[in-house]
Amino acid sequence: MTDAAGVTLVELEDDPHRIWHQLRAEGPVVWVDALNGWVIVERQAAVKAMRDAVTFTVDDPRFSTGQVVGPSMLSTDGPAHDRHRGPFVTAFTATALSDAIDWCTSEATRLVASIAAQREAELRTHIAAPLAVSTIVRTLGLSDVDDDEVLSWYRTIVAEVEAINYGGLDKDKSLAANDALVAAARRTINDNPAGFLAGANKDLTATEVASNVAVIMFGAIETSEGATANALWHLLTHPDQLALVLNDPTLIASAVEESLRLEPAASAVDRYATTDTEFAGVLIRKGDFVQVSLAAANRDPSVFVEPDEYRVGRPNTRLSTTFAYGPHACLGIHLARAETIAAVRAALRGLPGLRLDRDQSQGPQGLVFRKAAAVTATWDTPAS
Ligand code: HEM
Asked: DSSP strand E in the chain: where?
């Protein structure tokens, strides 16, 4: 058994890429003591595991999100997963989202215009974060709910998930946030009988609809904020690549996709082995924790040439595993891509001469959710 006993969580939070490169030399799947589980570090094995929900399931009592928000599409597999996810699929196709995407494009422009005159700002706080929250609140169409309220539920539920992982659960706070969310889902079902939450309520109870709304909201907020912050970070730290995009704005989509490959906003997905299995050269025991490292798969040198380089126009960037594969592939992929592209386009158009203030900026970090800590930039006064 490959045993990465020396690796610490702090190292993984800070620079996982260096560690995954080292461990990949030992095989596609490695045991990491600090995670008390296996980590899949090669792309082919990663995709295979994500597609095989019979052997590698999310449906395990240790799965912390399930403990906080209750059963949802994120914490079930097989027919139960189909039942939870099915009612939401149509609403998240690119066609069904066209209004939401138009709205988020205008909102990105508005957010950029609101800071343009000040010539300096931290872009994660002023663009990425508010755009992520307002886009998903608007897309879900929850009755009588504003962005601040959703943010307060979000913070409570994230804190509860962390508390389960690291101790100190405050059950009262968590129940209050869940109750408010269920109430908002019920209101929306009643107020908008033609809406997709009412449609979902035909197959799921109102509480189950609310659990899936929670998963959609929280899946969207953390990751979309990270994706936008990271895309701006990568462009602003690579002036040659930024120049390419400024010269040909049709490359923005490629610049975003390459950023998503290099730093997937959700860097790993968790699974549990349902049976003893020989997998990619190791014996995984029933019940073992198996983490699929999307960050490692996305820098697999057998797939991506010079994998640590940020290259706009990389021909196979779309082979990245950032939005996962298999039954749990990201439901919000179209919204996520459109939102990040809208934010980058608005920033490059509305903030001329955009450049990084390196002293006030810090790149991507985090154990699971990796996002640039601060993207402080300056620019010239926009032409009036
Ligand atoms: C760039 C931003 C995003 C990234 C990187 C991302 C990434 C992911 C990943 C890796 C998964 C797989 C989880 C797993 O298999 O355990 C996932 C699932 C999911 N994502 Fe996203 N996501 C993003 C944005 C969004 C948005 C905007 C939404 C809003 C609809 C969303 C909703 C979901 C949901 C509901 C699932 C669970 C699907 C299921 O379990 O069947 N995500 N996402």
From this structure: 29-32, 37-40, 56-57, 120-122, 268-273, 277-279, 282-284, 289-293, 355-356, 362-365, 371-374, 376-378
pLDDT in tens, 10-38: 899 889 999 999 999 999 999 999 999 99
Please give the distance, rounded to the nearest whole angstrom, from the Cα atom of residue 224 to the centre of ligand 1. 10
Q: Is the pLDDT of residue 117 over 50?
A: yes
Domains, in order of start, for the chain: 9-378 (1.10.630.10)
Q: Residue 265 Cα, ligand 1 centroid: separation in angstroms?
A: 10
Residue nearest to atom 20 of ligand 1 (CA): 330
The reply to whether the predicted model has a pTM over 0.90 is yes
Q: Which atom of ligand 1 is nearest to the CA of 74?
A: 40
**Distance between Cα 370 and ligand 1 center (Å):** 14
